Amino acid sequence: MNTHQYSANIVWTGNTGTGTSDYTSYSRDHVISIEHKPDLPGSSDSIFRGDVTKHNPEDMLLSSLSDNKFELLMRPGAYFLVVKSEKHSHAIPFIIHR
Parallel, antiparallel, or unpaired: how do β-strands 30-33 and 9-12 relate? Predict the structure, then answer.
């Protein structure tokens, strides 16, 4: 059995001068760093006061799940010599926020 290990560093960059002194005083911005890859600026989802122009954890989860589904669909085809040259996924999740 092979073991795969992954590592990421997430650094909060949202201190606007007063830290987390109150809920509206700080930015939700952060930087995701993974060795040998470009840094990825992130933020919370806009419903949690994040920056809508940056990737948020929900975006990352959705893309991760979609990519894993892609691998599950493509691998059997490779074993049985079924050649696929293109594939697109489009997912629309939703969060109920009260």
Answer: antiparallel
- Which ranges in 1-98 belong to alpha helices (H)? 57-79
- pTM to 2 decimal places: 0.68
| Separation CA 98–CA 71 (nearest Å) | 35
Task: Give the integer Cα–Cα distance in Å for 9 and 58.
Answer: 17
Structure confidence by residue, pLDDT tens digits, 46-69:
999 999 999 999 888 888 777 665
3-state secondary structure of 12: strand
90 in Cβ contact with 62 (< 8 Å): no
Query: Which amino acid makes up residue 69?
Result: K
Strand partners, 10: 32
How far apart CA 54 and CA 51 sit, in angstroms, is 6
Q: Give yes or no for a contact between 50 and 60, defined as CB atoms under 8 angstroms apart.
A: no
